[in-house]
Design goal:
With about 575 residues, the protein is mainly beta. Among the domains are: about 180 residues, no CATH class; about 160 residues, no CATH class. About 5% of the residues lie in helices and about 55% in strands. It is built from 3 helices and 32 strands. The strands form 5 sheets. It has a 24-stranded antiparallel β-barrel. It has a two-stranded antiparallel sheet with strand order 6-7. Strands 8-9 form a two-stranded antiparallel ribbon. A hairpin with a 2-residue loop joins strand 16 and strand 17. The longest helix has 19 residues. The mean pLDDT is about 90.
């Protein structure tokens, strides 16, 4: 609290000083989401004692020459269903002061940062999935010469709001995180390379965490042993990026020393991770190939944390993040304890004025992604797999495991037929290991075929109608679904929409329900207001492999967003 007050008064003083000198700018944004909840036994929607819940936040940023400072207010009265209730309350969880010059940048307070692809360190937030692991501490960036970039961080991660004796919410943090990142660009450092078509970037990251030892015990043959849990755990990574038009290649390999966690069952096996990306792009054609292997690479500032709490690192997702409702029904969740996968994306534009391209050309997009388990072998015949207090298992680096977690084959065609009509067609074939990816061992693997037809008609100036038709065919989980949606927009201010998702082949006939939703909104300048009413099915929302569970709901929702 004292630290917050110091930063807050610093911000106030700087603001008044800037105004007195006719210098400096203040900008920001805010959002409020309010929802009512009505019990609906048909879809499993629960009532809430409060009847109405609210999430809100407001960011304020002041900048003056080389100085900037900011803070964010957050209020959860109480937290919307589907978001973590440990944040119930209000406070200022994000506040900082920053000074930067051409080659030096220092931030005191909260900050977000990422080293490389995030394999050993990524601090970020996403309000949509309710994720925020902001650092609270010190960040220093230094560039002694062009082409050499050094970043160091130290601090603790955001975890939740906690109420003190006065009922005022405070932000709670866990273990200490320390890291350093170095990037080196030979093309910028050496004059002889500055005009070369091939561009190279080298990077190295070192991150460690400290958490006081917490007793963990192992019982074998009626004998109980106290495990020696390391208080300091180190992780490091090296990466290489090479770009030469039309090719681009990047790779990062990371290694983590033994780190017994609740998530890995307190085994002592070191972890490793590899992420690779190769792309080729020219006018009208592009292809991306991606591969990754993750082995026991959960890295958290609190060894007892699970789910999405207190992740120091980030496992990049290579599966496609779908935007259509049924295509996003079964999103992939990254498996920190072990996964191995490949993905490719091909984009091709059929030329204009050709037989298939027509007047405006035709776009074709193909995606294929597959995620599999890694191989697990016993470390000894008399030691079970994943035995607590041991290395847990061995794994050949290039050997696949026996479980197929996820497979997605998607073909998408988009076509502008005339100035007033365009459409998008998508077909997806999906395999989804429900037991592993949703943590429900009794569930079967889901096999689904998904069809989407999305078309827009320009009716008259500034008026457009978009129709979306979808169908999901499956014999597992909740069975097959159909959806119809219509959205009418009057640019640039108004929009109106109506949607119905019908679970017409639910294995339990009494749950063959319609999930309807009606909405309208108004936008003026940087302010947007939206009202909606309807049902929301229970499910999981994922962005980049980070997920949260959404309960079924029935009620009204109001959202206000604005920036200044």
């Amino acid at each position: 609290m004292k630290q917050f007050l110091l930063l807050f008064f610093t911000l106030v003083i700087m603001t008044f000083y800037g105004f007195s000198q006719n210098e400096g700018t203040v900008r920001g944004n805010f959002q409020t989401t309010l929802q009512t909840y009505t019990e609906d036994t048909l879809i499993g929607a629960q009532n809430t004692p409060e009847k109405l819940l609210l999430n809100s936040y407001a960011n304020i940023l002041y900048s003056n020459n080389n100085f900037s400072a900011g803070l964010r207010y957050e209020g959860y009265f109480n937290t919307l269903q589907g978001y973590d209730s440990k944040n119930d309350g209000f406070g200022f969880p994000y506040r900082f002061v920053q000074y930067n010059t051409d080659n030096f940048d220092i931030t005191v307070g909260n900050f977000y940062e990422q080293f490389g692809s995030g394999l050993v360190f990524r601090s970020f937030e996403d309000k949509y999935i309710g994720y925020d692991n902001a650092m609270d501490g010190l960040r220093v960036k230094f560039s002694p010469v062009q082409g050499v970039y050094l970043t160091s961080v130290i601090g603790r991660q955001r975890y939740s709001f906690l109420k003190n004796d006065d009922g005022i919410s405070q932000v709670s943090y866990s273990g200490l995180v320390r890291g350093i990142n170095l990037e080196f660009s030979p093309n910028d450092v050496f004059k002889v390379l500055e005009d070369k078509k091939t561009r190279v970037l080298l990077g190295y990251s070192f991150v460690s965490k400290y958490q006081k030892e917490q007793n963990q015990y192992l019982t074998l043959n009626d004998t109980t042993y106290l495990l020696d849990i390391p208080e300091n755990v180190t992780s490091m990574s090296g990466r290489l990026n090479i770009n030469r038009y039309p090719f681009a290649f990047s790779t990062e390999y990371a290694y983590k020393f033994n780190d017994p966690l609740a998530e890995n069952g307190y085994i002592y096996k070191p972890g490793n991770a590899l992420f690779m990306n190769l792309s080729f792009s020219k006018k009208g054609f592009g292809i991306i190939l991606t591969a990754k292997r993750i082995d026991n690479f959960s890295f958290r500032s609190d060894r007892t944390a699970t789910l999405s709490d207190l992740n120091i690192n980030y496992i990049p997702d290579l599966t496609r993040n779908h935007i259509y409702a049924f295509s996003a029904f079964y999103p992939y969740a990254s498996q920190n304890n072990g996964e191995m996968g490949l993905a490719t994306e091909i984009n091709y534009k059929i030329k204009k004025e050709s037989f298939l391209g027509g007047k405006y050309g035709t776009g074709i997009r193909f995606n294929y992604s597959i995620m599999n388990s890694i191989q697990h072998k016993q470390i000894a015949d008399d030691i079970p797999l994943f035995q607590k207090g041991t290395d847990g298992y061995t794994s050949d680096f290039f050997a696949l495991g026996d479980e197929l977690y996820y497979q997605d084959i998607t073909v998408e065609i988009n076509k502008k037929v005339s100035k007033k009509f365009k459409f998008n067609f998508l077909y997806q074939n999906l395999t989804f290991d429900f037991a592993t990816l949703r943590g429900e061992p009794e569930m079967k693997t889901v096999y689904a075929n998904i069809f989407v037809l999305d078309f827009t008609i320009s009716l008259k100036k500034k008026h457009a109608l978009r129709i979306e038709l979808e169908e999901l065919l499956s014999e597992q989980d909740m069975g097959s679904w159909a959806m119809a949606s219509a959205e009418y927009t009057i640019s640039p201010h108004w929009f109106f929409s109506a949607t119905d998702q019908y679970n017409y082949e639910n294995p339990k006939p009494e749950y063959q329900a319609h999930y309807y939703n009606f909405a309208f909104g108004y936008k003026i300048n940087a302010t947007r207001v939206q009202f909606s009413y309807g049902r929301q099915r229970a499910g999981v929302v994922c962005i980049g492999g980070v997920c949260r569970s959404m309960p079924a709901t029935n009620g009204f929702m109001f959202t206000l967003t604005s920036s200044f």
